[in-house]
Amino acid sequence: MTDGKILVTGATGQLGTRIVQFLQAKLSPAQVVASGRNVVKAPQRVTFRVVDYDHPATIEAALEGVSRVVLVSGNEVGRRVQQHKAVIDAAAAAGVQLLAYTSILKADASPLLLAAEHRGTEEVLRAGDLPFIVLRNGWYSENFTNTASLAIQSGVVLSAARDGRFSTAARDDYAEAAAALILRDDHQPGQVYELAGSTSFSKREYAALLAEKSGGEVQVHDLTETQYTVALTKTGLPEGFARILADSDAHAADGWLFDDSRTLENVIGRPTTPLDQSLDAALDVR
Ligand SMILES: NC(=O)c1ccc[n+]([C@@H]2O[C@H](COP(=O)([O-])OP(=O)(O)OC[C@H]3O[C@@H](n4cnc5c(N)ncnc54)[C@H](OP(=O)(O)O)[C@@H]3O)[C@@H](O)[C@H]2O)c1
Fold first, then answer.
1. Torsion, CA 16, CA 20, CA 22, CA 24, rounded to 10
2. Over the stretch 68-81, which tens digit does the pLDDT of each residue have?
C-alpha cells in the first residue's frame, strides 16, 4: 500500500471514472486524485486536477504529493505515444513509485493497428527508470453491447472475424482490476498483466444470443475487411475509425482478441461479468 496519493488520468472518461470510484471505495478521500482535461466531466466527490497530455506543466502540477499513477491511455489515435511519454517523463521526474499503464491485449506481438501506440508506450516505459506495470486490457463487452439493439433491429451482425473468439469483459471489470493492481506491492518490475474475459464468444454465438434475447432472427453477414470498413463508414463512422474497427475484427479471426489465461478473474477474485449479463443491462431486460 502507498502513503502518497494515487492519480488517475483519463478520469473524465468511462474507464477512468470507474477506476476512481473503485479506489474511493478502498481509500480515504485525500488519497485519490482524478484528472482529465475537463472539470465538468470529473467524477463526483473527489479531488480533481486538470491534466492535458499535450501540456506537460499541467501534468507536473497534478503530480504534487502523488506516489502512484494509473495512466489511462488516451483516445487521440496517432498522437498517443508522445502524449503518454509526457506523463511517464513527468512521473519519473516527480519520483512516482509505481505507474500502471492501460495497454491492449498481447501488445508486444499484436498486429492490430490499435496495438502500435500501446507497444510504443510500453517501449518508452521499458527504456526508462520509472517503476511500472502494464495492464493489457482486452476488448470491452461494451464494444458489442453498445450496438446490440441496432443489430437486433436490423437482424444483422456484420463481421470480418469469421470464427475468431472475443474474450471480452465489462469495462467495470477492467476498472476494478486497475484499482486492485495499483494498490498491490507484489509486482515484478515491469510486470505485464494480460487482462481479458473469463469466457469468450464468436460473432456467430453473439448473433445467436441476440436472437434468443429478442425472439427475432439475427444473422451474421461475413464480410472481407474492406467490405466491413465500407459498411461501417456507411453507418456514419469516420473512415479512419471504421478502418481501425475492421482491422481489429479481421485480426480477431486469428485469435488476437482471445485470451484464456483468466488473469483478470484472478486479479478481481471473481469471474468477469458474462456477456449475457452485460447485454441484459444494455437492452434493459428485466
Ligand atoms: N479495450 C477496449 O475495448 C477499448 C475500447 C475503447 C477504448 N479503449 C482505450 O481505453 C481508454 C479508456 O477507455 P474509455 O472507454 O474510458 O475511453 P474514453 O471514455 O474515451 O476516455 C478517454 C479519456 O482519455 C482522456 N484524454 C484523451 N486525450 C487526452 C489528453 N490530451 N489529455 C488528457 N486526457 C486525455 C479523455 O479526456 P477528455 O474527457 O478530456 O476527452 C478521457 O478522460 C481509451 O482512451 C482507449 O485508449 C479500449
1. 180
2. 999 999 999 999 99
Q: What is the DSSP letter of 119?
A: H
Q: How far is the CA of 36 from the centre of ligand 1 (A)?
A: 10
Atom of ligand 1 lying closest to residue 140 CA: 3
Cα-to-centroid distance, 54 and ligand 1 (Å): 14
CA gap 170, 6 in Å, rounded = 23
Collect all residues with Cβ–Cβ distance below 8 Å to 221 and sequence separation of at least 6.
156, 157, 158, 159
What the block records as the C-alpha cell of 246 is: 475492421
Which of 75, 119, 137, 244 for mutating ligand 1's site (highest number of atoms within 8 Å of CB)?
75
Upper half-sphere CA count for residue 122 (Cβ side, 13 Å): 23
End-to-end C-alpha distance for the chain, whole angstroms:
40
Three-state DSSP class for 239?
Answer: helix
Report CA(11)–ligand 1 centroid distance (Å). 9
H or E segment to which residue 213 belongs:
helix 203-214
pTM of the model as a whole: 0.98
CA of 14 to the centre of ligand 1 (A): 7
What spacing in Å lies between the alpha carbon of 62 and ligand 1's midpoint? Answer: 18
Half-sphere exposure (CA, 13 Å, Cβ side) for 30?
Answer: 4
**Tell me: the pLDDT tens digits for 130-183?**
999 999 999 999 999 999 999 999 999 999 999 999 999 999 999 999 999 999
Report residues whose beta carbon is within 6 angstroms of any ligand 1 atom: 10, 12-16, 36-38, 41, 51-54, 72-76, 83, 102, 137, 139-140, 143
